[in-house]
Amino acid sequence: MAVAVLQSKLSNSGVLLQSAGISATEGDSIDAKTEMVLQEQAIQLNHTAKIVSGNALNWADLILTMTRNQKFLLISQEPNIADKIYTFQAYVGHPIHDIESPSGDDLFEYRECLRIIEAACDLLVQEILEETEL
To answer: pLDDT higher for 41 or 96?
Structure first.
Protein backbone atom coordinates (compact mmCIF):
# COMPACT_ATOMS: atom_id res chain seq x y z
CA MET A 1 0.00 0.00 0.00
CA ALA A 2 2.72 2.45 0.92
CA VAL A 3 4.45 2.39 -2.45
CA ALA A 4 1.11 2.86 -4.22
CA VAL A 5 0.25 5.88 -2.09
CA LEU A 6 3.73 7.37 -2.50
CA GLN A 7 3.67 6.82 -6.25
CA SER A 8 0.33 8.61 -6.49
CA LYS A 9 1.61 11.55 -4.44
CA LEU A 10 5.08 11.80 -6.06
CA SER A 11 4.16 10.95 -9.65
CA ASN A 12 5.85 14.01 -11.16
CA SER A 13 8.70 14.45 -8.68
CA GLY A 14 11.40 12.26 -10.21
CA VAL A 15 11.67 10.23 -7.00
CA LEU A 16 12.28 6.54 -7.74
CA LEU A 17 10.50 3.99 -5.58
CA GLN A 18 10.79 0.25 -5.18
CA SER A 19 8.82 -2.14 -3.05
CA ALA A 20 10.05 -5.47 -1.74
CA GLY A 21 9.05 -7.78 1.06
CA ILE A 22 10.88 -9.87 3.59
CA SER A 23 8.37 -12.70 3.53
CA ALA A 24 6.86 -12.06 0.11
CA THR A 25 6.42 -14.79 -2.43
CA GLU A 26 8.20 -13.68 -5.58
CA GLY A 27 5.75 -12.93 -8.38
CA ASP A 28 2.56 -12.90 -6.30
CA SER A 29 -0.01 -10.31 -7.28
CA ILE A 30 -1.46 -7.74 -4.94
CA ASP A 31 -3.85 -8.97 -2.26
CA ALA A 32 -7.46 -8.55 -3.41
CA LYS A 33 -8.53 -6.61 -0.30
CA THR A 34 -5.53 -4.31 -0.58
CA GLU A 35 -6.38 -3.66 -4.21
CA MET A 36 -10.01 -2.98 -3.26
CA VAL A 37 -9.22 -0.35 -0.63
CA LEU A 38 -6.67 1.32 -2.93
CA GLN A 39 -9.27 1.48 -5.70
CA GLU A 40 -11.75 3.03 -3.27
CA GLN A 41 -9.29 5.92 -3.02
CA ALA A 42 -8.57 5.94 -6.79
CA ILE A 43 -5.01 4.76 -6.18
CA GLN A 44 -3.67 2.43 -8.86
CA LEU A 45 -0.94 -0.14 -8.35
CA ASN A 46 0.56 -2.52 -10.86
CA HIS A 47 2.49 -4.76 -8.55
CA THR A 48 4.02 -8.17 -8.32
CA ALA A 49 5.79 -9.19 -5.16
CA LYS A 50 9.56 -9.12 -4.95
CA ILE A 51 11.82 -10.45 -2.25
CA VAL A 52 14.08 -7.81 -0.78
CA SER A 53 17.63 -8.20 -2.08
CA GLY A 54 21.05 -6.87 -1.21
CA ASN A 55 21.10 -5.05 -4.54
CA ALA A 56 17.87 -3.22 -3.75
CA LEU A 57 19.07 -2.36 -0.26
CA ASN A 58 22.31 -0.93 -1.59
CA TRP A 59 20.53 0.90 -4.46
CA ALA A 60 18.24 2.84 -2.13
CA ASP A 61 19.10 6.17 -0.54
CA LEU A 62 16.37 5.61 2.05
CA ILE A 63 14.75 2.36 3.18
CA LEU A 64 11.46 2.44 5.05
CA THR A 65 10.02 -0.61 6.76
CA MET A 66 6.59 -1.01 8.23
CA THR A 67 7.79 -2.52 11.52
CA ARG A 68 10.78 -2.40 13.83
CA ASN A 69 11.22 -6.17 13.46
CA GLN A 70 11.58 -5.77 9.69
CA LYS A 71 14.12 -2.99 10.20
CA PHE A 72 16.24 -5.04 12.58
CA LEU A 73 16.08 -8.11 10.35
CA LEU A 74 17.32 -6.14 7.36
CA ILE A 75 20.11 -4.54 9.37
CA SER A 76 21.18 -7.95 10.67
CA GLN A 77 21.41 -9.18 7.06
CA GLU A 78 23.08 -6.04 5.66
CA PRO A 79 24.74 -4.05 8.49
CA ASN A 80 26.08 -1.48 6.03
CA ILE A 81 22.53 -0.13 5.48
CA ALA A 82 21.89 0.77 9.12
CA ASP A 83 22.33 4.50 8.51
CA LYS A 84 19.64 4.66 5.83
CA ILE A 85 16.93 2.39 7.23
CA TYR A 86 14.03 3.52 9.38
CA THR A 87 10.57 2.38 10.20
CA PHE A 88 8.16 4.49 8.21
CA GLN A 89 6.53 5.89 11.34
CA ALA A 90 9.84 6.73 13.00
CA TYR A 91 11.00 8.57 9.90
CA VAL A 92 7.93 10.82 9.95
CA GLY A 93 8.11 11.45 13.70
CA HIS A 94 6.16 8.61 15.32
CA PRO A 95 8.98 6.34 16.52
CA ILE A 96 7.03 4.03 18.79
CA HIS A 97 4.42 2.99 16.23
CA ASP A 98 4.63 0.20 13.69
CA ILE A 99 2.33 -0.22 10.71
CA GLU A 100 1.07 -3.77 10.93
CA SER A 101 -0.11 -5.62 7.85
CA PRO A 102 -3.85 -6.11 7.73
CA SER A 103 -5.10 -9.66 7.58
CA GLY A 104 -8.31 -11.61 7.52
CA ASP A 105 -11.58 -10.72 5.90
CA ASP A 106 -12.30 -7.44 7.71
CA LEU A 107 -12.05 -4.58 5.19
CA PHE A 108 -12.07 -2.11 8.10
CA GLU A 109 -8.59 -3.34 9.04
CA TYR A 110 -7.36 -2.73 5.48
CA ARG A 111 -8.96 0.72 5.35
CA GLU A 112 -7.45 1.64 8.71
CA CYS A 113 -4.01 0.49 7.54
CA LEU A 114 -4.39 2.62 4.40
CA ARG A 115 -5.42 5.63 6.51
CA ILE A 116 -2.29 5.28 8.65
CA ILE A 117 -0.10 4.87 5.58
CA GLU A 118 -1.65 7.89 3.88
CA ALA A 119 -0.99 10.07 6.93
CA ALA A 120 2.64 8.93 7.06
CA CYS A 121 3.01 9.44 3.30
CA ASP A 122 1.66 12.99 3.54
CA LEU A 123 4.39 13.83 6.07
CA LEU A 124 7.08 12.12 3.99
CA VAL A 125 5.99 13.81 0.75
CA GLN A 126 6.03 17.20 2.46
CA GLU A 127 9.62 16.57 3.58
CA ILE A 128 10.71 15.29 0.16
CA LEU A 129 9.23 18.25 -1.65
CA GLU A 130 10.83 20.68 0.79
CA GLU A 131 14.23 19.04 0.24
CA THR A 132 13.92 19.12 -3.55
CA GLU A 133 13.09 22.85 -3.44
CA LEU A 134 16.34 23.67 -1.60
So the answer is: 41
- Alpha-carbon distance of 116 to 131, in angstroms, equals 23
Q: Which 8-state DSSP code applies to residue 81?
A: G
Give the containing element (helix H, strand E) for 121. Answer: helix 107-133
Q: What is the pLDDT of residues 74-92, one digit of tens each?
A: 999 999 999 999 999 999 9
- Contacts (Cβ under 8 Å, ≥6 apart) of 98: 66, 67, 68, 69, 87, 89
CA 101, 29, 58, 76: dihedral to nearest 10 degrees?
40
CA-closest candidate to residue 74, choices 94, 57, 99: 57
Q: How far is CA 49 from CA 19, 21, 85, 91, 101, in A?
A: 8, 7, 20, 24, 15
pTM of the model: 0.88
Asked if residue 47 lies in contact with residue 19, where contact means CB atoms within 8 angstroms, the answer is: yes
48, β-bridge pairs:
29
Closest by Cα among 41, 48, 9, 2 to 129:
9
